[in-house]
Design a protein that fits this description.
The protein is of the alpha/beta class and 565 residues long. It contains 19 helices and 22 strands. It is globular.
Length: 565
């Protein structure tokens, strides 16, 4: 039986599973070209069906997530979520009532789900899915944090573990604590939406004039440039109190915003970011400690938007009571479609473990389709027998190469299938990428892909547990700082992707680069321009290639060269 998972909120998308296999998963932004798109994922559903040569008649059931009052309201009145999307992404100027709307948003999201909101959400989703050919297909609805917990535990590979979810808010909650054991996922505690680490950091992002739900990584990055303030002098640490496996907040969401604004007035922006980041690290680690003690578990699986914070994840990894850890790579709400499908499969067939060696769950394209696009744009290209070797040689000569191979990555990170690649030791190339291609802020570092056999030599405290999905920060050993200066932050940390033999072509590229340069590391950033989604189709790749005026692109087995540069 095929189960279709859908998510129609922030970073909407679709996924199809069968048995213990994830067959395809895709977010709407990749097709609509609207970053973190919001709304019913019609394009994603169709693309997933087409990829598997399925029709709506082949789908046994549709699984969806989140049915609190606010989510149900925006399903009934979709113009509300569209307006919020445009305001949040700075595509529309705020109006006279923006302050009131912001206040209303936080109050409405705290209203819990009910039988009525579930019924209405199911009815709206049934109507929308009927437009895509699913008339009469059963709709299953699942709790927001249960879906997050399912992605973390069922993909972890652990037979048993503690499971923690933390995000802004969903179904009236900002977090949950569960235990996964004996093929059962049992909830042991919840964290109220009125006590939210996610909303706390969302407020911080907004106060720093950045886009909430999108620029939190910039807050973490700029915090590294602050003059450190002692924990004893940190006024934000008192905002949260950890009580066992629960969290209490000193202020509600509205009052918290006002108090944070007062703190920002007294500190430079980078110090305000530092205080906020440090608060997350300390308080969440305190919570994790208590959870591990309470549950008696030594392994932990994590999901929810908070765990996109790689510094928090690093602190959790360093806790002495944590022997192993797993962060679901699509930890934010964009992973809820897959989580909902997991929950349906769990209830119907008690399936609790999925093959999860990689996140290459998106679309792929034949060479013939690629060649047609290249010819259409009159680009100069040559089909190569060993594209990895050719690209490695170009990178070694200080060239920047666009890299488009195989199935697209699922989630926010480029992991060697839709990537921009360059040498990892060049600050000049880093600046060139920032100013000419990526158009990002200068303080946000790029990331390295590292050969698994070299990771222990390069990274401090590397335990041998491969971090294949760029979900964790590591400190770089002092002797390698200069050789990785294009991919590390000012504090000497990086967010590495550990590459093993499973990803054959990308692994081969790194091996070839190591033969030439002596180190199996490459700068890997997402194949897009800042503010746009990761490229999905060959046409997206070619458009970005032409727009950015880069010289080289390796797309499938074709090496494309701009002769006019």
């Amino acid at each position: 039986m095929y189960i279709l998972g859908i998510w129609d909120g922030h970073d909407s998308g679709a996924a199809i599973i069968k048995g213990n296999q994830i067959l395809v998963a895709l977010n709407e932004e990749r097709l609509s070209r609207r970053k973190l798109d919001i709304g019913f994922p019609q394009r994603s559903i169709k693309a997933c069906l087409d990829y598997l040569n399925l029709t709506p008649m082949d789908i046994s059931g549709i699984a969806a997530s989140t049915f609190d009052f606010a989510k149900t309201l925006t399903r009934v009145f979709p113009s509300m979520r569209e307006e919020y999307y445009l305001l949040r992404r700075r595509k529309k100027a705020p109006g006279k009532l923006s302050g009131l709307k912001k206040l209303s948003k936080y109050k409405l999201t705290e209203i819990n789900a009910s039988f009525l909101t579930r019924y209405i959400s199911q009815a709206v989703l049934a109507k929308e899915s009927g437009k895509s050919g699913f008339a009469g297909t059963q709709i299953f609805m699942f709790d927001h944090h249960r879906c997050h917990a399912a992605t973390a535990s069922f993909c972890s590979g652990f037979e048993e573990c503690a499971v923690i979810t933390l995000d802004g808010i969903g179904d009236g909650l900002s977090g949950s604590i569960s235990v996964f054991k004996d093929q059962k996922l049992d909830l042991i505690n919840t964290i109220s939406g009125k006590t939210s680490f996610g909303i706390f950091f969302e407020h911080v992002t907004n106060l720093l004039n950045m886009r909430e739900l999108e620029d939190e990584g910039k807050v973490m990055a700029i915090a590294n440039y602050a003059f450190p303030i002692s924990d004893a002098a940190n006024p934000l640490l008192d905002f949260f109190h950890i009580e066992g496996t629960g969290v209490k907040s000193k202020y509600n969401s509205i009052k918290m915003y006002k108090e944070l604004k007062k703190v920002l007035w007294a500190y430079p922006s980078e110090q305000f970011a530092y205080l906020s980041q440090r608060t997350l690290e300390i308080k969440i680690c305190e919570l994790v400690k208590n959870v591990m003690i309470k549950t008696g578990q030594q392994k932990v699986a994590l999901s929810g938007g908070i765990f996109s914070n790689i510094k928090v994840n690093m602190r959790i990894r360093e806790l002495p009571m944590v022997s192993n850890y797993f962060v679901f790579p699509h930890m934010g709400d964009g992973g809820l479609a897959l989580g909902a499908a997991f929950c349906a499969n769990y209830d119907l067939r008690q399936i609790t473990s999925y093959k999860f060696n990689d996140v290459f769950l998106g679309l792929e394209h034949k060479d013939d389709d690629v060649e047609k696009v290249l010819k259409k744009h009159n680009l100069c290209f040559e089909k190569k027998d060993d594209i990895a070797c050719d690209v490695a040689r170009l990178i070694a000569k200080n060239e920047i190469v666009f890299w488009f191979q195989g199935r697209m990555e699922y989630g926010p990170r480029s992991l060697g299938h839709r990537s921009i690649l360059a040498l990892a030791n060049s600050e000049k190339i880093k600046d060139q990428l920032n100013l000419r291609l990526k158009m990002r802020v200068w303080y946000q570092p790029f990331c390295p892909s590292v050969l698994e056999e070299d990771a222990g030599e390069i990274l401090e405290s590397y335990s041998g547990i491969p971090n294949r999905f760029m979900t964790m920060a590591y400190s770089v050993k002092p002797e390698y700082i200069d050789r990785l200066k294009g991919v590390i932050s000012i504090d000497g940390t990086c967010r590495p992707q550990i590459v093993d033999k499973y990803d054959k072509l990308y692994y081969q590229l790194l091996q070839e680069l190591k033969k030439i340069t002596g180190i199996g590391v490459v700068l890997n950033t997402s194949f897009n321009v800042h503010g746009s989604p990761l490229v999905c189709l060959p046409a997206d790749a070619v458009e970005t290639f032409i727009k950015t005026r880069n010289k080289y692109m390796a797309i499938q087995n074709y090496l494309v060269t701009r002769k006019d540069l």
